Amino acid sequence: MQIEYKKKAVKYINSADRTTKKRLQEAIEKIPFGDIKKLTGFENEYRLRVGDLRVLLTIENDIVTVNEIKPRGQVYKRL
Prior knowledge:
This protein is α+β, with helices and mostly antiparallel strands. The protein is 32% helix and 38% strand. The protein has a single domain (2-78), classed as RelE-like (YaeB-like fold). The protein has three helices and five strands, in the order βααββββα. Strands 1-5-4-3-2 form a five-stranded mixed beta sheet. A hairpin with a 2-residue loop joins strand 4 (53-60) and strand 5 (63-71). The longest helix has 12 residues, at 18-29. The relative contact order is 0.24.
């Protein structure tokens, strides 16, 4: 499975502290497993829960695209 990162996701990861970076990296690398749910109303959109953070993903043809990472209260406002 190939993992790609959008610019917003990379920016959030780079601005996070060391422990948060490590938690995000470990969770994203273990993508088929973990707390992943399909978002209702979307075809290929999923969310990964990492503590209070939510990682929005798109999964197509064995390519996982990390679209955005935000705190729980802010991530669903754009949907």
